[in-house]
Amino acid sequence: MNSEARIIKLAEVFVKQELEFDSSGHDWWHIDRVRKLALEIAKTEKEADGFISELSALLHDVADEKLNDSKQAGLDKVENWLASNIADKNITNRVMTIIATMSYNGGQNPPMESIEGEIVQDADRLDALGAIGIARTFAYSGAKGTIIHNPEQEFSHFSQMDYRSNGKTAIYHFYEKLLKLKDLMNTPYAKELATKRHDFMEEYLRQFYNEWNLEDNGGL
Ligand code: ADP
Ligand code: NI
């Protein structure tokens, strides 16, 4: 095994152990999907380093604030792991920069500095879309004890942001974040795939409201 393949294997073991008991949508299979997507996108970007993309994808959620005492504590954990397993400081620095800057933050964070960062950010965001994104949203809401939807706190379009934010419903999350992600993709590959997954979510929401309002009975 070459040293890159060895580091990837070690990272898998570390991440599996760190995220073993997570119920906030960051289970191992999320990480595995993001890593595969990142590798796939990297193949379409000729400047991109597949190893940096894959390693950053594997480690990206270990530092998540929700899983650590603070953002800094999470970043320190990843940095310590990198420092003890990789001699090349340049790799550690590149991966740390990606992980420290890739979060959504309401879409307000500055653009990623490297192509690998753009790739991992796209891959993570793509996994929040489509059928899997919908499943993760309801799983997350369930884990937090939030209800599916509350029509009395209705919003028909996300320009109408007067919603009281406590106890945000799962459906609210589509408007708050998921439907905005398509326009935030960095790479052409991700833009195209995001559009498909976005369309599927819109179709899903149409059906959801149709059922909610009993408009799907087709004159039964
Ligand atoms: P990641 O950084 O892996 O994209 P997040 O920590 O932002 O993940 O969220 C994990 C999953 O839970 C994602 O699929 C996200 O869309 C979903 N999620 C995050 N916040 C909420 C929320 N308030 N309500 C419902 N789903 C949420
Ligand atoms: Ni993630």
From TrEMBL:
Organism: Paenibacillus anaericanus
Alphabetized CDD domains for the sequence: HDc
PANTHER family tied to this protein: HD_PDEASE DOMAIN-CONTAINING PROTEIN (PTHR33594:SF1), SUPERFAMILY HYDROLASE, PUTATIVE (AFU_ORTHOLOGUE AFUA_1G03035)-RELATED (PTHR33594)
InterPro entries assigned: HD/PDEase_dom, HD_domain
Domain of life assignment: Bacteria
Domain HD/PDEase: 23-138
Classification via Pfam families: HD
Database matches in SMART domains: HDc (SM00471)
Gene3D superfamilies: 1.20.58.1910, HD-domain/PDEase-like
Protein name as catalogued: HD domain-containing protein
